[in-house]
Amino acid sequence: MSYFDQELDATGLHCPLPILRAKKTLNSMESGQILYIIATDPGALKDFSAFSKQTGHALLESRELDGKCYFYLKKK
Amino acid sequence: MEDRKKLAIIVTQGTLDWAYPPFILASTAAALGYEVQMYFTFYGLQLLKKNLDLQLTPLGNPAMPVALPVIAQTLPGMQAMVSSMMKAKIKSKGVASVEELRDLCIEAEVRMVACQMTIDLFDFNKSDLIDEIEFGGAATFFEFAGQSDVSLSL
Question: Are A16 and B28 an interchain contact pair (Cβ–Cβ within 8 Å)?
Answer without folding.
Answer: yes
